[in-house]
């Protein structure tokens, strides 16, 4: 099996007009518009990874018996391409996305994609669609690599054929309200992931399983659902597409705490980066269990000063209010706190080349 695959390049014969690109980039929203091209790479048990292509963005043909349509072997990643001050385009820790993609693949009995091929697939697409990478500070080009099982067969077993695809979508704020604090719903009726399950994988089924609870959160007037552990329904895990951070105290002695990786929550790359950045800024950092009782009690006493969600799509989004079956509480009156703002600024300026990248977290695409 080789990692150096030649790409067959077929440019889109009818790319979006410059006016259309400008119109989309003026108001990209999230995940609504797609660029002119996509990358596809095929896998078969006999040939390994083969047939790498850069081709026009278009519908994919699947056999109706393709196993993803029946048994759901489907994983994905999410990362962004950022315009740098010198006009080049870089991504933030894409090697970590490649590693997580392979960890998801192992959990779902799918083949691993060599890291270099994952990075190469991003470079191919970004090179072809560079004009879709926004210039504005809050915006970027969201890259969505994914893999689905394509073998036409109904036997319940790992597929022997797969399709890997990368698509790209210009992205602005994930939440319609921008960087305003969100209200979250604590889900005790539904669980996202159980011990031994697929919660630590970026597996499509986790998101399917979350939708009914997300709808319940919306019915409660909330923006997002917060998942609790499956066993005691007491320990905070994460949100639908974001990890959570809690700030205790204030000023230089503030402590930044995030739920420990239980095996049921996604090991976010933003989460891991913020643990490092918060320590660099001089804050105490801790990964440990946090219960819903602690959350409410310490928000009410004022010891818990800030809560925020973080992820590639959502960047850092403050959590202002929490609602659960028995009531509602606010964190510091529902305002965005200074540690949240400072960490957001540190992270985004690093991603956009505004400060020195001392850890080599930026990779030019
Ligand atoms: N948790 C879930 C369930 C996610 O889907 C995501 C997004 O990828 C995250 C957390 C945050 O991960 P990252 O920071 O790597 O984007
Ligand atoms: C991301 O942040 O990349 C995510 O995947 C979250 C969500 C859009 C699923």
TrEMBL record:
What EC number is given for this enzyme?
2.6.1.42
> Which reaction is recorded as catalysed by this protein?
L-leucine + 2-oxoglutarate = 4-methyl-2-oxopentanoate + L-glutamate; L-isoleucine + 2-oxoglutarate = (S)-3-methyl-2-oxopentanoate + L-glutamate; L-valine + 2-oxoglutarate = 3-methyl-2-oxobutanoate + L-glutamate
Enzyme class, first EC level, given as a word: transferase
Short name of one Pfam family for this protein?
A: Aminotran_4
- What domain of life does the UniProt record list for this protein's source? Bacteria
GO MF terms listed in the record are: L-isoleucine-2-oxoglutarate transaminase activity; L-leucine-2-oxoglutarate transaminase activity; L-valine-2-oxoglutarate transaminase activity
Q: Which organism is it from?
A: Actinokineospora auranticolor
What does the sequence similarity comment in the record state about its family?
Answer: Belongs to the class-IV pyridoxal-phosphate-dependent aminotransferase family.
Q: Where are the N6-(pyridoxal phosphate)lysine residues found in this chain?
A: 202
Report the protein name in the record: Branched-chain-amino-acid aminotransferase
Keyword terms, alphabetized:
Amino-acid biosynthesis, Aminotransferase, Branched-chain amino acid biosynthesis, Pyridoxal phosphate, Transferase
Q: Which GO terms describe its biological process?
A: isoleucine biosynthetic process; L-leucine biosynthetic process; L-valine biosynthetic process
| Pathway(s) it belongs to | Amino-acid biosynthesis; L-leucine biosynthesis; L-leucine from 3-methyl-2-oxobutanoate: step 4/4; Amino-acid biosynthesis; L-valine biosynthesis; L-valine from pyruvate: step 4/4; Amino-acid biosynthesis; L-isoleucine biosynthesis; L-isoleucine from 2-oxobutanoate: step 4/4
């Amino acid at each position: 099996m080789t990692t150096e695959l030649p790409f067959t390049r077929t440019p889109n014969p009818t790319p979006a007009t410059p006016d259309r690109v400008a119109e989309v980039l003026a108001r990209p929203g999230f995940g609504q518009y797609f660029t002119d091209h996509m990358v596809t790479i095929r896998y078969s048990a006999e040939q390994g990874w083969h047939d790498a292509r850069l081709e026009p963005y278009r519908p994919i043909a699947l056999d109706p018996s393709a196993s993803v349509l029946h048994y759901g072997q489907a994983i994905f990643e999410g990362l962004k391409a950022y315009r740098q001050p010198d006009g080049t385009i870089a991504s933030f820790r894409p090697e970590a996305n490649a590693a997580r993609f392979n960890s998801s693949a192992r959990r779902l009995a799918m083949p691993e994609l060599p890291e270099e091929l994952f990075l190469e697939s991003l470079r191919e697409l970004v090179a072809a669609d560079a004009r879709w990478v926004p210039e504005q500070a809050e915006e970027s080009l969201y890259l969505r690599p994914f893999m689905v099982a394509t073998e036409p067969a109904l036997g319940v077993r790992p597929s022997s054929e797969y399709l890997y695809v990368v698509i790209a979508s210009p992205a602005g704020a994930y939440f319609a309200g921008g960087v305003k604090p969100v209200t979250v719903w604590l889900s005790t009726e539904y669980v996202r992931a159980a011990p031994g399950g697929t919660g630590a994988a970026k597996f499509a089924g986790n998101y399917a399983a979350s939708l009914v609870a997300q709808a319940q959160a919306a019915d409660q007037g909330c923006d997002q659902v917060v998942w609790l552990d499956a066993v005691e329904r007491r320990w905070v895990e994460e949100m639908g597409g974001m990890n959570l951070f809690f700030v205790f105290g204030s000023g230089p002695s503030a402590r930044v705490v995030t739920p420990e990786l239980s095996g049921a929550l996604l090991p976010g790359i933003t989460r891991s980066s913020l643990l490092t950045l918060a320590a660099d800024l001089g804050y105490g950092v801790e990964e440990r269990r946090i219960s819903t009782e602690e959350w409410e009690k310490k928000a009410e006493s004022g010891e818990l000063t800030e809560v925020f969600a973080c992820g590639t799509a959502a960047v850092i989004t403050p959590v202002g209010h929490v609602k659960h079956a028995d009531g509602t509480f606010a964190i510091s009156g529902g305002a965005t706190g200074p540690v949240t703002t400072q960490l957001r600024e540190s992270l985004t300026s690093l991603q956009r080349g505004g400060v020195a990248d001392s850890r080599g977290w930026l990779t030019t695409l």
